[in-house]
């Protein structure tokens, strides 16, 4: 099957076509960077692609809304699919888009799941119990399809980043996993494809998420006990207009383990997931 060029950038629809292109680059001794996405690209995604381009000779960007990481009742059907607009953002940055359909990624009798223990056991893992198995499985498949030198993942999905690093280490997949910084809107809201779901009033509330997160992290850095600070942070989010808070936690930045003493005694990260209306937002930042 020939590559699709309707968007002005080559698009591979099959793993065979993807591998054909990457193998041709390898024969020229070119290095390969990879940025996996679910599409609906924003400047945060573009920054990851630019980082990959700065580090490697050629960049592949995948666009695939992965069904196995969505639980029943989540927004799989509603998740924005904007391939033409995404391709426009990738011109002069990526050398190839990999945009398979579900049948290409998952055979009808597909029966293998990649499960990463420990780092996925709570936070997002508790709120969305099937999520990380779906993420790890599809990312393993994508990494093995591309076999890039480097793969870039955003730090906004911090627990996901640690999960992928652990999986690659444990399975000896020969890819360097690199975390890219979170890009933010003018009011500090972390860029996300799901921000498009927010109504104007909800968007105003959403802009307070990073502010309260930063205030909570600052309080702990100044000596406040973690339980008291996070409890106050949750109360502030509810007062600001959030409908619910799945979690607001300060954890070890490497393992995501809690701090039993109530004080950080190692590099720490604050992580949050909160809902406004039907939209679920996540964010995180270091405790400095």
Q: What's the rounded overall pLDDT mean?
A: 97
Radius of gyration: 19 Å
**In order across it, which strands form the biggest sheet?**
1-4-3-2-5-6
The CATH architecture term of the largest domain is 3-Layer(aba) Sandwich
Low-confidence stretches: none
As a percent range, the share of helical residues equals: 25-40%
Tally of DSSP β-strands: 9
User: What would the CATH topology of the largest domain be?
Assistant: Rossmann fold
Shape: globular
Q: What does the model show?
A:
This protein is of the alpha/beta class. It folds into two domains: 11-180, 3-Layer(aba) Sandwich (Rossmann fold); 193-287, Pantoate--beta-alanine Ligase, Chain: A,domain 2 (2-Layer Sandwich), CATH 3.30.1300. Helices cover 37% and strands 19% of the residues. It has helices at 15-27, 43-55, 83-90, 102-105, 124-127, 131-146, 158-170, 200-206, 209-221, 226-240; strands at residues 11-12, 32-37, 58-63, 96-98, 150-154, 176-180, 244-252, 268-276, 279-287. The strands form two sheets. A six-stranded parallel beta sheet has the order 1-4-3-2-5-6, with helices on both faces. A hairpin with a 2-residue loop joins strand 8 (268-276) and strand 9 (279-287). Helix 6 crosses helix 7 (158-170) and helix 9 runs antiparallel to helix 10 (226-240). The N and C termini lie far apart (52 Å). The mean pLDDT is 97.
């Amino acid at each position: 099957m020939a590559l699709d060029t309707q968007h002005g950038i080559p698009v591979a629809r099959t793993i065979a076509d993807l591998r054909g292109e990457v193998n041709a680059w390898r024969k020229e001794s070119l290095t390969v960077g990879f940025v996996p996405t679910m599409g609906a690209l924003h400047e945060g995604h573009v920054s990851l692609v630019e980082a990959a381009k700065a580090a490697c000779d050629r960049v592949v960007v995948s666009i695939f809304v992965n069904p196995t990481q969505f639980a029943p009742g989540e927004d799989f059907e509603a998740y924005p699919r904007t391939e033409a607009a995404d391709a426009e953002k990738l011109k002069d940055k990526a050398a190839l888009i990999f945009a398979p359909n579900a049948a290409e990624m998952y055979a009808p009798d597909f029966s293998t799941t990649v499960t990463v223990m420990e780092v996925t056991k709570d936070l997002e893992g508790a709120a969305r119990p099937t999520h990380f198995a779906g993420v790890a499985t599809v990312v393993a498949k994508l990494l093995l399809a591309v076999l890039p030198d480097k793969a870039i993942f955003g730090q906004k999905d911090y627990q996901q980043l640690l999960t992928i690093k652990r999986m690659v280490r444990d399975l000896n997949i020969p890819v360097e996993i690199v975390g890219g910084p979170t890009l933010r809107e003018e009011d500090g809201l972390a860029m996300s494809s799901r921000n498009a779901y927010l109504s104007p009033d909800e968007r105003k509330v959403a802009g307070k998420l990073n502010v309260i997160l930063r205030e909570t992290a600052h309080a702990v850095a100044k000596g406040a006990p973690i339980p008291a600070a996070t409890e106050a942070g949750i109360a502030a989010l509810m007062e600001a207009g959030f409908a619910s808070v799945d979690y607001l936690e300060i954890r070890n930045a490497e393992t995501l383990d809690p701090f039993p003493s109530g004080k950080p005694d190692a590099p720490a990260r604050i992580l949050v997931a909160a809902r406004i209306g039907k939209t679920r937002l996540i964010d995180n930042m270091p405790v400095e």
